[in-house]
Input
Amino acid sequence: MKRTLPVAAIFLAAGSLYAQFDFKVAGRNVQLHSFASQGFAYSNDNNYLTMNTSSGSFALTDAGANISVQVNDKFRVGAQFYLRNVGNLGNFHPEVDWALGDYRFAPWFGIRVGKVKTTLGLYNDTQDLEFLHTWALLPQSAYPLDLRASTIAHTGGDFYGTIPVKKLGSLSYTMYGGSRIDDPRGGYYYGIKAVGAVAVNTNGNQIGGDLRWNTPLPGLLVGGSYLDSPLGAHITVEVAPTVVFPGSVSGAERTTVFYGEYKTGGLTLAGEYRRERLFGMESVPGILGEHFAWDERGWWASGAYRFSKRLELGSYYSRFFPSWADGDFDKPGNHLFDKTVTARLDLTTHWDLKIEGHFLDGYGSPTSFRGFYPQDNPTGFKPKTTMFLVRTGWNF
Amino acid sequence: MRHRVTFLLACVLGAMVASGLAAADVKVIANPSVGAAAVSADELKGVFLVTKTSLGDGSHVEPVLEKGGPTHEAFIKEYLGKSDAALQTYYRSLVFTGKASMPKTVAVDAEVVAYVAKTKGAIGYVSAGANTAGVKVLDIR
Output
């Protein structure tokens, strides 16, 4: 009951406001928008993404609602609330997704201040908005549902703009800095329990930027992003029943992304390469003190074709390696590949239904927190997983 | 057989005429507060993709779109290079990430003209035959 109330509130608010999503208050334009989605996942063997997928799970729900006000020609303010329940993650806990003031001095220069969605790769800032994508589940090598909070937004500010480059198209840039608030209901906090530790605080700062080139070839976009985030986590480690030691993880996390997208007619081709380097020191005073260096790499490529206003079909291939340095990529514990096929049906302009098949090979490392967790699979992991996913979403 | 070929040709030509409303059949209109008498295709694209809120002469502008129909399809194909579905996805990606508001949308030419006439900085498009009293028609450079 406690969990269903916030969801019901968002649905009811959105529904009741449908007729007046665009109106004026004191002469200023006010807009209200919302979205919601519900999924069902069924897998043959392993449980995936903390859901009980091997028995079939409806625990894939999210919703959001936003309000924005155009204060004057250049200044706009707004905020969005978001909640989700993905298996054991999220737990319908509402959060401020973004809340910002945006002042656009000119097309080539604007500032956003507040809690701002982070621009990283093609879809980081839109990863929760299933209705924008062909897929029910984005490639997890780049957009892991469990680790959403580590990159989704920062509290600070952005400089952004678009600069025309005459016959060469245009360049869009975003530079940002701020603090990241991690999610105690997310994959890191959940996953670290499997190694006998409890995360206490993993918040930190981050700076980064994104540069994308809208090329003169219509529909072709290429770009790159970089994110630098000092790594700092306070944890507690249970070394024996009732014996708990405080510990810490310190270091840095550096993410580099290169991407491209090409759209022509009904065809969309896209791809992305992502490398995350994490290095630093883990310590539990008196027990453990060691340096670590992880090199995670992944890429994905996709193709989708819209056959009609109502039907789009697509497929992607995603590869993730939790430890590139290990080199033994054949081990199912050191790779996670996903071949996906999707049919997207647009039942109306505001309501979609997706039917998707995932053919997963490998399960990654238990400490990469990418969908497969020991506590959800107590009898161990099978090397391959086939998952059927249905998701429907609504927005206005 | 000859009748069939003639009939098929007539159907194809008819379909081309019906669906092939060209950009030349669309007029771009603006509120009289907009100082410019002409806009470039790039400026128009910037305004309707909400990356541009003013024209070269400094006039503030805000776009107004038609909900659908041949004029809308012809305009967005010619000047924005997007289908209607792709354009809606683009606008929603901005709205739900806090990067922009949804542009004003109205149903038919007469509503576009009425909205543009009363809204400072408004810029829209209508079919070539629409009555544009109260607004200015912009040339496309």
Remarks:
- Confidence is low (pLDDT under 50) at residues 15-20 of chain A.
- DSSP finds two helices and 18 strands in chain A.
- Residues 4-17 of chain A form the longest helix (14 residues).
- The domain at 4-395 of chain A is CATH 2.40.160.10 (Porin).
